[in-house]
Amino acid sequence: MNYSPTLVLNSDFRPLSYFPLSLWSWQETIKAVFLDRVNILSEYEDVIHSPSFEIKLPSVISLKDYVHQTRDPAFTRFNVFLRDSFTCQYCNLKLPTQQLTFDHVLPRSLGGRTTWSNVVTACQKCNFRKGNKILRSSGLSLKNLPSQPSTWQLQENGRGFPPNFLHQSWRDYLYWDTELEKD
């Protein structure tokens, strides 16, 4: 049962988030069912028993009350990487998170600030090459100008990175940028 997460959809049947995918543990899900906060849309074969009650584990639920998404996402290292699709903005190399850094386009030592419009994803090689120089002096150029993304943009970028585990019952509610299986 520990490996039976539940896909959580907003009341409009869209995932609360794509990256990370909005999932609840079976314990959180059962609590929400008993508190009548969700609708069960799909179930696993696994069943939970108590002395007086039995319920199949939900695999997909929707919230009864709509949760408004914030318009301005938090400025975090991960969200910068997600905005830039985990791609170095200098050499265009796509890398895993642990091989990425972020770079201040205008170095902090020259007055650059840690903001959406001054920070980009960089691979370690490009970050080292640019160092404490302004862009013109480094010989590098930006693939995309940095800007503050909306929550919607981050969600759209997240759709490009499906998780390793997708239960079959979730597929009708998720729209990944991957090719569909052909019959």
The figure for the number of domains is: 2
Q: What is the CATH third-level topology name of the largest domain? A: DNA Binding (I), subunit A
Fraction in beta strands? 15-25%
| Structural class category | alpha+beta
Secondary-structure element pattern, one letter each: EEHEEHEEHHH
- Annotated CATH architecture of the largest domain: Orthogonal Bundle
Low-confidence stretches: none
Q: How helix-rich are the residues, as a percent range? A: 10-25%
* Overall 3D form: elongated
**For the record, what CATH class of the largest domain applies?**
Mainly Alpha
Number of strands: 6
Report how far the terminal alpha carbons are from each other: 31 Å
Rounded Rg: 21 Å
Largest sheet strand order = 2-1-4-3
Largest sheet: 4 strands, mixed
Helical stretch tally: 5
Mean pLDDT: 90
Structure description:
The chain is α+β, with helices and mostly antiparallel strands and 183 residues long. The chain has 2 domains: 6-68, no CATH class; 77-151, DNA Binding (I), subunit A (Orthogonal Bundle). 19% of the residues lie in helices and 21% in strands. The strands form 2 sheets. A 4-stranded mixed sheet has the order 2-1-4-3. Strand 3 and strand 4 (54-63) form a beta hairpin. The radius of gyration is 21 Å and the shape is elongated. The two termini are 31 Å apart. The relative contact order is 0.17. The mean pLDDT is 90.
List the helices and strands and how they pair.
Blueprint: E1 6-9, E2 23-24, H1 26-34, E3 38-49, E4 54-63, H2 77-83, E5 100-104, E6 119-123, H3 124-130, H4 135-138, H5 151-158
Parallel strand pairs: 1-4
Antiparallel strand pairs: 1-2, 3-4, 5-6
